[in-house]
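Much of what follows relies on a compact textual record of a protein's fold. An example makes this concrete, so a full record is given next.
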Amino acid sequence: MPPISPAQLDTFDHKILIELERNGALTAAALAERIGLSPSACHRRVKAMEAAGVIEGYAAILSEKALGRSATVFVAVTLDNQRSETMAAFERAVSKCREVQDCHLMTGESDYLLRIVIADDDRYERVHQETLSRLPGVRRLVSNFTIRTVFRRAASVAH
């Protein structure tokens, strides 16, 4: 089966993606049984979706709380300007910050949105002063603490 484009996904492909989203560690045989295909056909489809970039990889979803990281903070970052060199310098620097789990270039009032997870014994004040405020080009930081995570998902397939 040649590599497929996302527009060419059929019902079986969507079923495969839904099952892998639920459990990325499924064997080809278990996956095939759940969706009603042979293991070899299922394996070929998974490999084709990987080759097409529909499936980028597999990861375990870790419990932040169990790892001792109970505080999640979303930080809206506004830069001094939106010149490409300013943005590139910020992106290079922020990618090295161990507390930053996600960084998104945004539209709207802020330039970036960061998701930061800090340890139970850590203080956000330290992260703010020693890390975030020292990133190149930062003009303004607006921090919002989560009260509770209602749910987390990996990239979702339309069900």
About this structure: Helices lie at 11-22, 28-35, 39-51, 84-94, 124-130.
